Amino acid sequence: MDCAMGYIVRQNKGGITMGKISFVKAFLPLLLLFSVLAIEKGIAADVPLLKKLEKVEGFPIPAAQIVKLPEKATSNGTELMMSLKVDYAAAPQAKGEGSPVHIAVSIYPSKGGKIFTDGEGELFLIDKDGKVAAREKAPLVKLCPT
Amino acid sequence: MPSGDYLLVVMAHIGGKPLIGEIVDVQVPPPLKERLKTIKDLPLTQQEIENLASEGDFGGKKLQFSCNLSTPFIIDAGKSKTKNNSFLMTSLMEADGKTLKQCQPEKGTKLNVFIYDMAGKAVMKKKDKWEANMPQIQCDIPNGCYLVVAWTELKNQKLGKFFYASLDKRY
């Protein structure tokens, strides 16, 4: 017995007959192949970022876990989300070769309500060489390295 | 922070373990005054821009000019974010004792907005009439760091500000 796309070829005593088989059965191997390729492509899209992060030393969890951290998560039955704001508002007074960076992080319930403060925020500012240029860990609500 | 491109990794530890995280491309710009020097087609002289005040006394009224470039994050079931529809929001507030109340400038007042990218190229040049109470200007500009110069002129006196605004790329 030999299989071809969309057709099944049977060798009988009287000769070879071809009959249609179901569309799903015929395309199943192809669908599986496309699914595998799509998954691989999805993973590949994160590779440059993952590779950058894998070179960084000092993360509390592996880089592969960091890239998978969600932007929303549930804790004690409450869905929480992160608000992150980066600005350079203090820049007019800046001296030297750079600018003050103000990073504000807060966690709040996605359905609205008070800012969630029961936890810690941690941030890493990584330069283009993969070195940690700034690191801060503080109680939630605000993190402001400059 | 020295100017340059950085990757910002933020995580929230809740219940003793990392639960939520964000990874963002951050472009730290050089000092604002240094950047101003490198822009050739400034709408005002560098001195005039540096002297822009966001507060002023106008006939006994204390007015505050406010301007922000921001992107409303459209969160679709926690899966995707759209970051290409940033808005420049401007307002004029009048200090009334300890409180601030919104104030509409006189008819015919102009709002001037100039936005420059980090290469010093103008990505927006606008001189519009201040018509809405809080004008919102849509800016279809890519992620990155921008220098914004915005001002209005009331009774022959400029009121405005110049600042960096960051539209960060989020992973």
What structural keywords apply?
heterodimer, A: 146 residues, alpha+beta, 2 domains, three-stranded antiparallel β-sheet, 2 helices, 8 strands, 36% strand, extended, B: 171 residues, mainly beta, Immunoglobulin-like, five-stranded antiparallel β-sheet, four-stranded antiparallel β-sheet, 6% helix, 59% strand
Descriptive account of the structure:
- With 146 residues, chain A is an alpha+beta fold.
- Chain A is built from two helices and eight strands.
- Chain A has helices at 23-54, 63-66; strands at 2-4, 7-12, 15-20, 72-75, 78-87, 102-109, 120-126, 132-139.
- In chain A, strand 7 and strand 8 (132-139) form a beta hairpin.
- In chain B, the strands form four sheets. In chain B, strands 3, 4, 7, 8 and 11 form a five-stranded antiparallel beta sheet that branches.
- With 171 residues, chain B is mainly beta.
- At the A-B interface, helix 1, strand 4, strand 5, strand 6 and strand 7 of A face strand 1, strand 2 and strand 13 of B.
Strand order of the biggest β-sheet of chain A: 1-2-3
State mean pLDDT of chain B (0 to 100 scale). 85
User: Can you identify the CATH class of chain B?
Assistant: Mainly Beta
Q: Total domains of chain B, how many? A: 1
Per CATH, the superfamily of chain B is Macroglobulin (MG2) domain
By oligomeric state, this entry counts as heterodimer
The percentage helix of chain A is 10-25%
Poorly predicted regions of chain A are 1-18
Helix content of chain B: under 10%
**Element string of chain B (H = helix, E = strand):** EEHHEEEEEEEEEEEE
Q: What's the order of the H and E elements of chain A?
A: EEEHHEEEEE
Strand content of chain B: over 45%
Under CATH, the topology of chain B is which? Immunoglobulin-like
**Whole-number average pLDDT of chain A?**
73
> How many individual domains of chain A?
2
Largest sheet of chain B: 5 strands, antiparallel
TL;DR of this structure?
The complex is a heterodimer of chains A (146) and B (171). Chain A is α+β, with helices and mostly antiparallel strands and 146 residues long.
